[in-house]
Every structure is written in C-alpha cells, then in structure tokens.
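Narrative of accomplishments. A recurring question from our advisory board has been how the design workflow behaves on a single, concrete structure rather than in aggregate. To address it, we present the structure tokens for one chain from the evaluation set, followed by the sequence designed for it. No filtering or post-editing was applied between the two.
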C-alpha cells in the first residue's frame, strides 16, 4: 500500500517541487531585471536581436499563410449567408485575439526557446556558469536575465508582425483572389474591432512572452549537465511552453469575456 501511494503521489510532489523552484527562479530574475537594464542594456539588445530579429522570417511566412487560410475559410462560410464583406472581421478577430499571440508564442518556443535552453544547458554542462561564479561574475545578471528579457520584449513585437502580415494575407486572398470589395473589407473590420480587442491580444502576447522565456531559461539552467540532459531540456521547453500557452490562453479569454 505504501509503495502504491508513493508511485501515485511521487510525480505530483516532484511537479510541486519543480514548480516552486521555478517560481523562486522567476523572483530572482525579476530582482535583477532593473540592474540589468541599467548596466547590461547592450546584452539585452543583443538578445532581442537573437530571439526576435532572427525569428522574423518564419513569423512573417507563417503569418502570411495563416492569414490566407483564415481568408479562405471565412469567405467560404460567409458566402452561404451572402455576407462575404465580413471576411475581414472574422480574420481580424481571429488574428488579433487568438491565433496571433498563440502561434507566435509556439513559433518562438520552437525557434528561439529551444536555442536559449540548449545554449544555457551547454554553458552549464561545460562549467562556464561555474567559471563565472569563480571570477565573481553573477551568471544571473550576465547570462540569464538578458536572455529572459530578450524573449519578453521580442514576443509582443513578433506578435504584432504576425498579426499585420496575417491581415495582409487575408486581404490578398479575400480581395485579390476571391473578389471581396476592398472598401467593405477594411471598413467593416475597422468598425467591428474595438480597443478592448486589441488590448486582449497585447495582454496575451506579454503573458506568453514571459512564460515562454521563463520556461526556456529555466529548463536550460536546471538541465542535467550532460548531452542527454540538454536534449531533454530542449524538448521539455517546447512541450511545457505549448501546454502553458494553451492553458493560459483559455484562462485569459475566459476572464476577459
């Protein structure tokens, strides 16, 4: 009986222990954030470039085709009710409030999050973080916080790029390919979208950026210092980010309705 209870509750206790450690790690990141902005701003800019600028191509390509698919689906369904001019409304709501923030966070985790986790994990495996401590350099300030802040800043900016390119893709499909009136497309879109809808997308992008960056940095920092451990940390980064983003998307949407 004792063995059965141990097998049942051991994974739950391990999850609670790891979650608590990650929360304390997050508090440490927040503690050194002001100092990093003042003293290590160049490192933060460099990480914004690595995590954001180098991801913009995949963001734009995916945004263009996701917007095109939304334009096709919206037109095909609205055509049944002779409401093709509302294609822009459906595409805009989907991109701004849901698809834009979610897919951007998932793409960030797959491209930049894995790179952050593997980079920090390899630095730990090769004792670079320990060497910094021996030279009186705080790895939290020099390595971890700049990478965390770079992801937090990059995700909302990438979300805005994804959304704008997605709207362009929806316009190209609906207006240029399917013949929807361009004036009706954009006028109805502007009349239907409220500031609250835009705020919802901004809130989600910021929250997802914090979560995706935190998980990437945490998994890399807590990885077992072996090649296998770094590989597992990289995999856990993508899986954990995807689960967390989808759960938080539901919670934020439910709280804002």
């Amino acid at each position: 009986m004792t063995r059965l209870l141990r097998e049942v509750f051991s994974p739950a206790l391990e999850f609670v222990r790891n979650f608590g450690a990650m929360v304390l790690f997050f508090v440490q990141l927040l503690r050194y954030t002001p100092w990093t902005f003042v003293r290590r701003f160049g490192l933060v800019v460099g990480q914004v470039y690595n995590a954001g600028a180098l991801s913009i191509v995949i963001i734009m390509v995916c945004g263009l085709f996701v917007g095109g698919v939304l334009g096709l689906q919206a037109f095909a369904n609205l055509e049944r009710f002779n409401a093709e001019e509302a294609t822009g409304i459906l595409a805009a709501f989907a991109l701004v409030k849901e698809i834009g923030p979610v897919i951007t966070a998932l793409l960030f985790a797959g491209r930049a999050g894995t790179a952050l986790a593997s980079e920090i994990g390899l630095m730990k495996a090769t004792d670079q973080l320990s060497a910094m401590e021996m030279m009186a350099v705080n790895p939290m300030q020099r390595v971890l916080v700049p990478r965390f802040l770079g992801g937090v800043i990059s995700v909302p900016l990438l979300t805005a790029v994804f959304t704008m390119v997605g709207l362009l893709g929806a316009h190209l499909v609906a207006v240029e390919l399917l013949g929807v009136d361009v004036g009706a497309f954009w006028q109805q879109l502007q009349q239907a979208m409220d500031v609250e809808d835009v705020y919802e997308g901004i809130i989600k992008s910021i929250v997802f950026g914090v979560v995706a960056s935190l998980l990437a940095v945490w998994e890399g920092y807590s990885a077992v210092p072996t090649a296998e451990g770094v590989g597992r940390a990289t995999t856990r980064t993508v899986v954990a980010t995807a689960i967390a983003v989808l759960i938080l998307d539901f919670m934020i949407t439910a709280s804002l309705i």
